[in-house]
Amino acid sequence: MIDFNFFKQKSPQQRFLLILGLVMLLFYLALGTLLIFWKEIPFDITPTYRILFGVLLIVYALIRFYRLINQKDQSE
Q1: How does pLDDT run across 19-57, given as a tens digit for each residue?
Q2: 47: how many CB neighbours lie within 10 A of its CB?
Q3: Angle at which helices 47-69 and 12-37 pack, to 10 degrees?
Q4: b/e map 2-20, b = 16+ CB within 10 Å
Q5: Domain of residue 58, residue span
Q6: Measured between alpha carbons, how far is 35 from 32 in angstroms, rounded to an integer?
Q7: Total domain count for the chain?
Q8: Are 68 and 21 in contact (CB under 8 A)?
Q9: Whole-prediction pTM value?
Q10: In a domain, 5, yes or no
């Protein structure tokens, strides 16, 4: 489970890195979704590779999110 008290005890630097990690999560999710659903993409790529790359970006975003949520305090 997610311990929300852990997030409250973070230093300003750790909170900034958490917010930056969430922004990057949203960026990778949006980019992966765009690659999957945007049919007339402005560069030449086959639909199979476009969908595979989009799915790969979404999986990478989820892995980053999992690691971000489950990271322990580095000073311990």
Answers
A1: 898 999 999 999 999 999 998 888 888 889 999 999 999
A2: 10
A3: 160
A4: eeeeeeeeeeeeeeeeeee
A5: 24-71
A6: 5
A7: 1
A8: yes
A9: 0.75
A10: no
